[in-house]
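Teaching note: in complex prediction, the entire set of molecules is handled at once rather than each chain in isolation. The prompt given to students was simply: 'Predict the structure of this complex.' The entities are:
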Amino acid sequence: MPELPEVETVRRTLAPHLVGRTVTAVEVYDAGILRHPTSPAPFAGALVGRRVRALGRRGKYLRMALSDGGEWIVHLRMSGRLLWHRERERRERFLRLRAMLDDGSLLDYIDMRRLGGMYLVDADGVGVPAGLGRLGPDAVDPAFTPAHLAGVVRGRRATIKGILLDQRAVAGLGNIYVDEALHAARLHPTRTGESLRPAEVRRLHAAIVAVVREGIRAQGVSFALYRDGEGRPGEMGERLRVYGRAGLACYACGGTIARARVAGRGTAYCPRCQPEPRRQTGRARC
DNA sequence: CGCTTCCTGACT
DNA sequence: AGTCAGGAAGCG
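The expected output is the structure of the full assembly:
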C-alpha cells in the first residue's frame, strides 16, 4: 500500500536520522526479505562499515546512497515498514531485519507479509532491482508532462486504471492514488487509453500531480505505515475522496460511490462523476 | 492484454 | 473454509 507519497514521507523522516551514520551491525531475522545478496552473511558483510550519504527515492523505491559508492535499496511493497528508534528491547511483531548505527540508534525493517524486500547494490551497480531501471518518470518529476501521459495512453486498448498502475508508464502510483486521480479527473476507470481525448489527458495529468502532491503534504495514507519512530500516522487517509468509500456519498455530486474490479484490483469510483464509457468512445473507426 | 502468484492476517 | 487486501514479476 505504500505508494509514492508514503515512501517520500518515509524518506524525509528518516533522512535526518540516517545521513552521516555508519552501520555497525546487521541482524537478519528472516532472509526471505533479502533480494540481493540473498544470504544474511554476505548481506550483512556488505552493509556493515558503510556510511549512509543520502536518502533518495525513485517511484516506490527508497534508495540509500552508501559511502563506498554502493546503494541500499528498499521496496516496502504491501506491508513493509521502516522504523527508526533507540529502544533496543523494542521488537515489533514481524521484525525482519535490524541495522545498528554508530550513534546507538536502530533502523528496523518490519514486514508482516514479507512481500517487500531490500537490495544491496555494489559500486558497479550489481544487484539493482530490475524494475528500477524500467520505471517511467516520477509522478512528481517535471519530466512527467501531459505530453508524456498522452504518449503513454496513445493507441492503448488497456484500461486507464491498468495503464496508471504500470510503473513503466508513470512511477509511484498505486491503487489508492489511481482511484483518487481518476475521480478528480472525472474519468471512469475502465476507459481505454486510446479513448482519452486531449482535454481528458490534460485533466488526468493535472489530477495525478495534484493528488500525489496532496498525499505528500498530508504525509501519506497510514496503513501499517508510520512517518517516524514515534509511529505517528499520516493524514491523507482522511482526505481520500473515493478509495475506501464505497456505498458512501460522493463529495462532489452526492451520488453513491460504487465498487468494481478493474485491472484485477478493487476499484472505487463515482458512477455519476465518472460516466461509464460508451463503445468506441471518442475514436472514429475507418 | 489480463490473469496468476507470492504472502499472511482480518473478516464473513 | 473462503474471500479479500495489492505491488510487481511472470505467464499464456
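Point out the following to students. The longest helix of chain A spans residues 198-217. DSSP finds seven helices and eleven strands in chain A.
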